[in-house]
């Protein structure tokens, strides 16, 4: 067992500070120590099985934090996990920011006041698809696919490199091979790359000095605010570095030395809680090495003295502009989680439980979208994603029922039940017993014998038996409701058009404004701070990431002879850029002639010149910073190689080494056209419909907020590409690139191992059209909206909409498990009620402030279809609708037992299903109680 030695004087001082702090703001916990052994974290002397919810504080507003934390807790989380974002906290070297969305102390205190623990992943390398990062392919093993090889997985490792950007490791077991990869990024401040002699993430003194300074700053801040567990705070664990094992070999011995240095540096800070390194198989003895991936049930740390910890369970995925939207079915996610605890895991964190929004220019790249929804259990706007949230809530409740046995047993008894079926049994003191039965077959259900009883296991599922006898939960049987969200100008409107099951949209009026003003962005040089240098300068070295935009301008002379040559041969010259990222707009003499985007791609653009002097103007643009894995500081953005004019009479003209004039950013950025205080400070002109679309234009208008309290989004589907601000708040980049028409799987079969290309949605549609505007950034009226539009769009068609849960529905069969709360029912505890006597229960619930206005469909029998296409089958209880209406209408939520005793038996000897679809409406006064039938 790992013991953390805290000096007595420091403990006494911490106690005194905690008591003093408690007098002011309330003490979160009685001070407690956190240690660990081979089985689990030990909190205040007790082993714990913990569920963690990933929430990144900068991806929401402080006003959203309490609700997000509360919904995580209600969903069964014990812990909140977050990275610490160095680039946000120290945007300028030595100048720290801990305010607004970066008020880390406030966030941690809110977690503590809610009664939850916190896992603080300092890094300071972080993933999270955050601005300025690397794109890499870390090792990922699908352990569930291989776990049928019992308790022993033998790795046969084959390493190959392709284009210096991808590493594959093959794990082979009984001829089963699975290869998976993940793209990750980090979040360093850009100024870090300008420190002389610096090399990131290796045994490099300049980098280590800066890293240690920042990590020390964070640990000291947490200690000063009494937020560590032994001070009565919520922090139970910290992380140093992040997935370094993926690139360690690139640095040779210096990489290994750096890893050991980072570990010792962290331990030397006296935080007094365990430290973690994820994906670090050579982590030192006193640092827990942890797993990240879609499946971590077969993971084992590098020491038998360490517990099995899963720091990132990827419950969704991110996307890029022009990409499809990933979706991970909750049945597979629940399967992965159950398998993890079944096979000895003790701490699992959902990455993400709430994804949120990449406000401003924080989205990484290249080309990651502004939304970071991540298909998480709580969506980008803070609404529950059902059935994912509800199904996981039930899973967590079932796991808690097993916790006494899980923490009491040092290991599980393994029982092979079939060729692809197995059981793990945990026995503790006082006859405590819990079991997990798994069917890893991807296609067929299986009937197995376990401890003298028969169990039917759906394919790719785990059944949880808290008492080793009765099934409390099966990962493939989803009893939670499905919520269909509406993005609409009027939440009461009934006119909708077809869209995916979980989301619908109404594209009607009203528009956000009929009155717009415009300001034309100058093309090329606009300020006194431009400068001229010989040759092509690297983009980030010039901009320091203070803007996405950088102008490159040079001038060439074209003779009459060249013009005649092109006319005679009916040809045109071309501009060739050897390599470019992320985007370039090409201008000749102030006229836009072409654009290109990509990740270090070659660009060839035909051009037209006039006789005499011609201005060649390139607007280079970053769309989120991204550098590959090792040696991040040596990569950059903009242009590489040569910039050449081809097709001239006497050969190519190399522009690379000519004098170039540089202008950082846009004039509108410099003037802060988006700031509320500058609203009337410039000569804007009234915009008319016949003036759009227009490129490189600023637009502004004023609008009223939609009524109510529902989340607000801007529908930007009429625009091209640019950035948007509301009341001075940068809501992010927008771009209406369309996803490919193929590659989606709707509906998607949850069975079998998940990867980021499985279960995609939104094919043939713009990747993102809705942009979140937090309610706290809005006022009832006269809100200022400012846009910078690059490629041409129509602001007159922008609308402000609200996101509401308008429809809820559910399918529950007779053979589903009873509700988890029945396991704590007094009659069950005292033995007078058998689980076999308990019946499944359907629960329907609208969002707070809404009531069930009407029952659109109800059938007890053999109903057909999904939520939007429900119909009665051959078997149907005619009283279904009246019973459900009586129980549910006018209430915020209702519960109905799924049994013949409620509905009668319309078809004996047939397993009946109850299917219900209900409409939720806003109510100024509603009965918040729950009706039970």
UniProtKB/TrEMBL annotation:
Residues 1-22 form the signal peptide. The keyword Iron-sulfur does not apply. GO terms for molecular function: beta-galactosidase activity; carbohydrate binding. Residues 836-921 form the SUEL-type lectin domain. Its main location: secreted. Belongs to the glycosyl hydrolase 35 family. This is Beta-galactosidase. It comes from Centaurea solstitialis.
């Amino acid at each position: 067992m790992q013991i953390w030695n805290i000096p007595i004087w420091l403990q006494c001082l911490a106690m005194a500070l905690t008591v003093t702090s408690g007098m002011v703001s309330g003490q979160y916990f009685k001070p407690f120590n956190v240690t660990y052994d081979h089985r689990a974290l030990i909190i205040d002397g007790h082993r714990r099985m913990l569920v963690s919810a990933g929430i990144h504080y900068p991806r929401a507003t402080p006003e959203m934090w309490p609700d997000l934390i509360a919904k995580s807790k209600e969903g069964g989380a014990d812990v909140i996990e977050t990275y610490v974002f160095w680039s946000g906290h120290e945007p300028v070297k030595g100048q720290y920011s801990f305010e607004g969305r970066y008020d880390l102390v406030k966030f941690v205190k809110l977690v503590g006041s809610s009664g939850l623990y916190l896992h603080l992943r300092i890094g300071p390398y972080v993933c999270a698809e955050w601005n300025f990062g690397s794109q890499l392919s870390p090792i990922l093993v699908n352990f569930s696919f291989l776990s049928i090889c019992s308790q022993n997985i033998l790795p046969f490792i084959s390493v190959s490199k392709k284009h210096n950007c991808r590493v594959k490791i093959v794990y082979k077991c009984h001829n089963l091979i699975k290869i998976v990869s993940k793209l990750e990024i980090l979040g360093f401040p850009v100024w870090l790359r300008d420190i002389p002699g610096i090399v990131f993430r290796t045994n490099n003194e300049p980098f280590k000095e800066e890293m240690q300074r920042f990590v020390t700053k964070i640990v000291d801040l947490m200690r000063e605010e009494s937020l560590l567990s032994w001070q009565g705070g919520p922090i139970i664990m910290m992380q140093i570095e992040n997935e370094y094992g993926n690139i360690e070999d690139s640095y040779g011995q210096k990489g290994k030395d750096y890893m050991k240095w980072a570990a010792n540096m962290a331990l030397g800070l006296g935080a007094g809680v365990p430290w973690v390194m994820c994906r670090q198989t050579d982590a030192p003895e006193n640092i827990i090495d942890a797993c990240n991936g879609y499946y971590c049930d077969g993971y084992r740390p590098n020491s038998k003295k360490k517990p099995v910890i899963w720091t990132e369970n990827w419950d969704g995925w991110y996307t890029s502009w022009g990409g499809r939207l990933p979706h991970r079915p909750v049945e597979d996610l629940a399967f992965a989680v159950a398998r993890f605890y079944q096979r000895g895991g003790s701490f699992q964190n959902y990455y993400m439980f709430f994804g949120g929004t990449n406000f401003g220019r924080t989205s990484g790249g290249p080309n990651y979208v502004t939304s970071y929804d991540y298909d998480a259990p709580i969506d980008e706007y803070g609404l529950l994603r059902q059935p994912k949230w509800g199904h996981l809530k039930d899973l967590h409740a079932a796991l808690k029922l097993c916790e006494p046995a899980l923490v009491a047993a040092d290991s599980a008894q393994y029982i092979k039940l079939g060729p692809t079926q197995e059981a793990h049994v945990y026995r503790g003191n006082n006859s405590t017993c819990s079991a997990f039965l798994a069917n890893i077959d991807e296609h067929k259900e299986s009937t197995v014998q376990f401890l003298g009883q028969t169990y039917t296991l759906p394919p790719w599922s785990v059944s949880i038996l808290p008492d080793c006898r009765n099934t409390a939960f099966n990962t493939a049987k989803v009893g939670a409701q499905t919520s269909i969200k509406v993005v609409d100008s009027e939440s009461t409107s009934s006119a909708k058009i077809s869209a995916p099951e979980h989301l619908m949209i109404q594209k009607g009026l009203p528009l956000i404004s009929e009155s717009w003003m415009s300001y034309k962005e100058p093309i090329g040089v606009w300020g006194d701070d431009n400068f001229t240098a010989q040759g092509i300068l690297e983009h980030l070295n010039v901009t320091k990431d203070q803007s996405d935009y950088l102008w490159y301008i040079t001038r060439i002379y074209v003779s009459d002879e060249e013009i005649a040559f092109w006319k005679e041969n009916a040809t045109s010259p071309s501009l060739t850029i050897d390599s470019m990222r992320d985007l370039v707009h090409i201008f000749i003499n102030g006229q836009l002639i072409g654009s290109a985007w990509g990740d270090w791609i070659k660009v060839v653009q035909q051009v037209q010149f006039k006789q005499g002097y011609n201005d060649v103007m390139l607007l280079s643009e970053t769309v989120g910073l991204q550098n590959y894995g090792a040696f991040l500081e040596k990569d950059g953005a903009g242009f590489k190689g040569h910039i050449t004019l081809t097709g001239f009479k006497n050969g190519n003209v190399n522009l690379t080494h000519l004098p170039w004039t540089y202008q950082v950013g846009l004039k509108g950025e410099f003037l802060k056209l988006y700031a509320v205080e500058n609203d009337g400070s410039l000569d804007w002109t009234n915009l008319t419909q016949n003036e759009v679309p227009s490129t490189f234009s600023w637009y502004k208008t004023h609008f009223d907020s939609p009524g109510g309290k529902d989340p607000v989004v801007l529908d930007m589907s009429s625009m091209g590409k640019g950035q948007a601000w509301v009341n001075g708040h940068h809501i992010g980049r927008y771009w209406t690139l369309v996803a490919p028409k193929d590659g989606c799987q709707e509906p998607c079969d949850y069975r079998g191992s998940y990867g980021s290309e499985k279960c995609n949605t939104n094919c043939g549609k713009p990747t993102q059209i809705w942009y979140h505007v937090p309610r706290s950034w809005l006022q009832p009226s006269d809100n200022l909206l400012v846009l910078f539009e690059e490629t041409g769009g129509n602001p007159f068609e922008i609308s402000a909409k609200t996101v509401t849960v308008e429809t809820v529905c559910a399918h529950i069969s007779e053979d589903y498990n009873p509700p988890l709360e029945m396991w704590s029912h007094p009659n069950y505890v005292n033995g007078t009620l058998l689980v076999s006597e308990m019946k499944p229960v359907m629960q329907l619930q609208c969002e707070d402030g809404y009531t069930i206005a009407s029952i659109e469909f109800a059938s007890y029998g053999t109903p057909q279809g999904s939520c939007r296409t429900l119909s009665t089958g051959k078997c149907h209880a005619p009283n279904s609708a009246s019973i459900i209406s009586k129980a549910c209408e006018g209430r915020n939520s209702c519960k109905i037992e799924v049994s013949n005793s409620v509905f009668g038996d319309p078809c004996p000897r047939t397993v009946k299903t109850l299917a219900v679809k209900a409409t939720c409406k806003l109510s100024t006064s509603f009965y918040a109680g729950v009706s039970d039938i």
